[in-house]
Fold:
Amino acid sequence: MKSRRLSTTLFLAGVLMALGSMVAWACTNLATLNLSSSQSAAGEGIDVTGSSFATAARGGQGVEFHWDAVDGPVLATATPDATGAIATSITIPGDAQPGYHVLIATQNVVSEEGEVSAAYGTPARASVLIGNVNAADAAQQPSAADAAPATVSAETASTGLIAATALLALLGIGLFGAGLGLFVREVRRRGAVPAPAERENPQA
Structure:
């Protein structure tokens, strides 16, 4: 009886941990941006869509679109819908120089205690080419370097969460296997024990 209870407990614990790891994995999505065109010109407009931003239910604030740096000029703002998706349009700055530039979307979340912090998975970014440039000019993208420090923490957090999720999944699988093994052994042991009638009335 104790063996059966132990196997059932391990089995259920493994299932719950596996389910928990799947839920945690589903929460590791990073915010993303998509542009209607990857090439434009100074003063022109571009449609922008995005996904996996924090919703109002999670304390998510408006998404701000910056030009070339996380603290660069704000070109537009957008409010995520109930699924975390956004859709808006921006106008390329009139003084934008030919070459590659970066559109950076930042977002803050406010906790129940009123603490403000960067939303998980942000900032998101998308590159856009202004005008026509040669290979030498295309290789120079200083704006991307300006944005890099702001995303290190998000990428590091994502890596840590993925590692923790994988560990949880492995532990769940281990418990599941242990419980299943004990259950199978208990079934085999019961099958090997003769029934009471057979023990009392052995055949001649």
Observations:
- Strands lie at 32-35, 39-40, 45-51, 63-67, 74-78, 86-91, 99-106, 108-110, 116-118, 124-130.
- The longest helix spans residues 142-192.
- Residues 30-147 form a domain with the Immunoglobulin-like fold (CATH 2.60.40.1930).
